[in-house]
């Protein structure tokens, strides 16, 4: 029997019985029965067997399933030792969903799809061997972190590591367009190439002149950003990895761009087909000045990027709108239009209710926290990547006269529950940094030179987290409670500390820093000021107890680290970012990212096979009360948790707002009825801004008929 011949199975039926309460109780044991049946009926009879590890390795290499060079960096004796170590850990998936997801989406299969060629131990082994690049000690350390599910590489890395026929290891990309046809043409080609490679592509269009602007003296000749959006959407539809997945992209526009209303209208359901974008995601960059104008209920001016660049000598993206706003208004050389700020605020909320878009990037907030010389101008497809970029200058042959820098995103996640149980928290995080460093070092995106240059100079990655709500429930903390906020702050402070330590260690070993370190706030020491008191030490008894056996750096420890970094530098320009990581969290048997769960027993519609039910990790009588659905929660609690993490994260966090079309009474004090309104979203976005949140990803709305508006689409970051 092969996978292609499986017909009579019991595991789907057993899993579905979770949804049928018995005497008011969820029959969680049915999921364990489904898991056992899945192994017995599916995995065991359909996994190709080998007499030894050596025989398996040679066969996989000969048949072009696994790359030869990285395997040959190790002796067969060491590989046997690694496999013995993994076997001794006696890894077991804890849920049917976890095992099903791994074997259906991640395990290597024969070319005809008939047999499995990998177990979880195999995939972990190949990841460890690949990322360690011949270092036996590091390979064992990475394997140790992964098999105990303290560390989870992002899907592109986890899935592709070691495979002969594979995509890229990085998750997504960021590029920006300047105000000329050469840049537009080159960017469309870049989008095609990057979408083919894999991962989502973020594109900033803020520098483009608005519709109706002059081109070489011809007034009204410019078509604006919407036709360019359509070109990018068509590019992603065409370049879809041989039909395996829809190409995915997001376009960002400044809230002060004259085309902002047309930009938002292109996503509306009733938009004219000539301008409507169906699959392209939308994001808006929002300076502080917009919030001020909304608060004061004043008119706002929208400024022509062409006249701004001509007057100031920099592309529109690089002008500090908040600082220069009054000067721009008074300058007769700046072409401008006027709208009421609150009208635009309401348009944003209406579209978020209808589609979940646009993403919001509080661009001044991001830049205030930025320790790197330069400016952040946009984000990625999931709104967690916030890195400085430099524009490129092209000639008429679309060759680089001056090459700027763009961004590739290299992601991984800690599993909060399991990392908190590590015997050495610091060593665990430092091992993760080493694994992520290999990915950034080995990534060479030749098709887009500005991406390659940015990666080679910055060596960035984004280590994040999953399972925060699971940890709260397991330890009897309500999501958004003071203790949960305090825990979140300290946890991410520890990630910050240890990634800095290891980045400094690598810089010292290699005698190399990221380009521009000398101009950074790390070099001046300014970055460390907030840590030179014991402000972030545990305060409540609950959190003190949690961290009693875990090293928490004091002000003196931070002062010492500051001195060492000023001496030796940092290898990585950026280190932390929290992605949505949806499906891959199931493999880890934990809640996704750091947001709350949506259901205690989640119902997922899987392609071809129907519904699968996933009970929240550690769901039991004593944890049930702590698993409040995100849709039944005051979103200010979610914002508070994200704000606590943001304090320590040098990039961003994919913050999703979960709303109901009919909001339960009593959640928000300003509401007298239950109907969700634009005012609700306006208030929450402003609350997030004042709490220091850098970005808002989707607004997901649970409707009366059980649908979800604004469901995740960014597969490369989500899974």
UniProtKB/TrEMBL annotation:
Residues 558-580 form the Ribonucleotide reductase large subunit domain. PROSITE patterns: RIBORED_LARGE. One of its GO terms (molecular function) is ribonucleoside-diphosphate reductase activity, thioredoxin disulfide as acceptor. It is an enzyme of class 1 (oxidoreductase). InterPro entries: NrdE_NrdA_C, RNR_1b_NrdE, RNR_lg_C, RNR_lsu_N, RNR_N, RNR_R1-su_N, Rrm1. Keywords: Allosteric enzyme, ATP-binding, Deoxyribonucleotide synthesis, Disulfide bond, Nucleotide-binding, Oxidoreductase. Belongs to the ribonucleoside diphosphate reductase large chain family. PANTHER family: RIBONUCLEOSIDE-DIPHOSPHATE REDUCTASE 2 SUBUNIT ALPHA, RIBONUCLEOSIDE-DIPHOSPHATE REDUCTASE LARGE CHAIN. This is Ribonucleoside-diphosphate reductase. It comes from Pilibacter termitis.
């Amino acid at each position: 029997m092969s996978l292609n011949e499986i017909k009579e199975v019991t595991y789907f039926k057993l899993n579905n019985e979770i949804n049928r309460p018995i005497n008011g109780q969820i029959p969680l044991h049915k999921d364990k029965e489904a898991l056992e049946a899945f192994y017995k009926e599916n995995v065991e009879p359909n996994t190709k067997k080998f007499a030894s590890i050596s025989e398996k390795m040679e066969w996989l290499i000969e048949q072009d399933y696994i790359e030869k060079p990285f395997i040959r960096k190790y002796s067969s004796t060491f590989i046997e030792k690694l496999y013995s170590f993994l076997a001794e850990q006696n890894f077991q998936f804890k849920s049917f969903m976890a095992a099903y997801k791994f074997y259906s989406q991640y395990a290597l299969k024969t070319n005809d799809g008939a047999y499995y060629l990998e177990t979880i131990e195999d995939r972990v082994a190949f990841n460890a061997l690949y990322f360690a690049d011949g270092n036996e000690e590091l390979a064992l350390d990475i394997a140790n972190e992964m098999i105990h599910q303290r560390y989870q590489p992002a899907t592109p890395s986890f899935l592709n590591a070691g495979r002969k026929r594979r995509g890229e290891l990085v998750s997504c990309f960021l590029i920006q367009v300047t105000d000329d046809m050469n840049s537009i043409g080159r960017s469309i080609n870049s989008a095609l190439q990057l979408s083919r490679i894999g991962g989502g592509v973020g594109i900033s269009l803020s520098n483009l002149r608005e519709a109706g602007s002059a081109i070489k003296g011809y007034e009204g000749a410019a078509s604006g950003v919407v036709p360019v959006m359509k070109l990018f959407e068509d590019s992603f539809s065409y370049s879809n990895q041989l039909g395996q997945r829809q190409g995915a992209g997001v376009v960002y526009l400044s809230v002060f761009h004259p085309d902002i209303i047309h930009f938002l209208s292109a996503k509306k359901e009733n938009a004219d087909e000539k301008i409507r974008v169906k699959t392209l995601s939308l994001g808006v960059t929002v300076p502080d000045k917009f919030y001020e104008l909304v608060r004061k209920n004043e008119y706002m001016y929208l400024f022509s990027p062409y006249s701004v660049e001509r007057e100031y000598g920099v592309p529109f993206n690089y002008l500090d709108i908040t600082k220069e706003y009054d000067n721009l208004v008074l300058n007769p050389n700046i072409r401008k239009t006027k709208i009421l700020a609150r009208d635009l605020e309401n348009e944003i909320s209406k579209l978020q209710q209808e589609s979940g878009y646009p993403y919001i990037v509080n661009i001044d907030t991001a830049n205030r926290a930025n320790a790197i010389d330069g400016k952040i101008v946009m984000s990625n497809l999931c709104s967690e990547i916030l890195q400085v970029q430099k524009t490129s200058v092209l000639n008429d042959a679309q060759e680089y006269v001056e090459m700027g820098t763009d961004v590739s995103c290299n992601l991984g996640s800690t599993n909060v529950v399991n990392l908190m149980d590590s015997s050495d928290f610091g060593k665990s995080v430092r091992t993760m940094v080493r694994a992520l460093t290999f990915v950034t070092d080995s990534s060479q995106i030749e098709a887009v030179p500005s991406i390659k240059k940015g990666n080679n100079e910055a060596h960035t990655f984004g280590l994040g987290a999953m399972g925060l709500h699971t940890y709260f429930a397991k330890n009897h903390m309500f999501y958004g409670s003071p203790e949960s906020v305090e825990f979140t702050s300290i946890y991410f402070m520890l990630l910050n500390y240890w990634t800095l330590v290891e980045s400094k260690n690598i810089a010292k070993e290699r005698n190399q820093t990221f380009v521009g370190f000398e101009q950074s706030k790390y070099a001046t020491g300014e970055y460390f000021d907030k840590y030179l008191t014991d402000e972030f030490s545990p305060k409540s008894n609950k959190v003190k107890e949690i961290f009693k056996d875990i090293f928490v750096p004091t002000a003196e420890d931070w002062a010492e680290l500051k001195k060492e970094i000023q001496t030796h530098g940092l290898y990585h320009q950026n280190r932390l970012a929290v992605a949505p990581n949806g499906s891959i969290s199931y493999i880890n048997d934990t809640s996704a990212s750091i947001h709350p769960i949506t259901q205690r027993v989640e119902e997922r519609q899987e392609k071809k096979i129907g519904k699968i039910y996933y009970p929240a990790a550690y769901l039991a009588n004593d944890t049930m009360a702590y698993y409040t659905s995100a849709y039944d929660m005051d979103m200010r609690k979610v914002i508070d948790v994200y704000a606590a993490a943001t304090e320590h994260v040098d990039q961003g966090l994919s913050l999703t707002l979960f709303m109901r079309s009919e909001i339960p009474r009593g959640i928000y004090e300003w509401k007298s009825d239950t109907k969700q309104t634009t005012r609700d979203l306006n208030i929450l976005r402003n609350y997030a801004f004042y709490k220091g949140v850098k970005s808002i990803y989707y607004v997901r709305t649970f409707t009366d008929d059980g649908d979800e508006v604004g469901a995740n689409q960014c597969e490369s970051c989500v899974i």
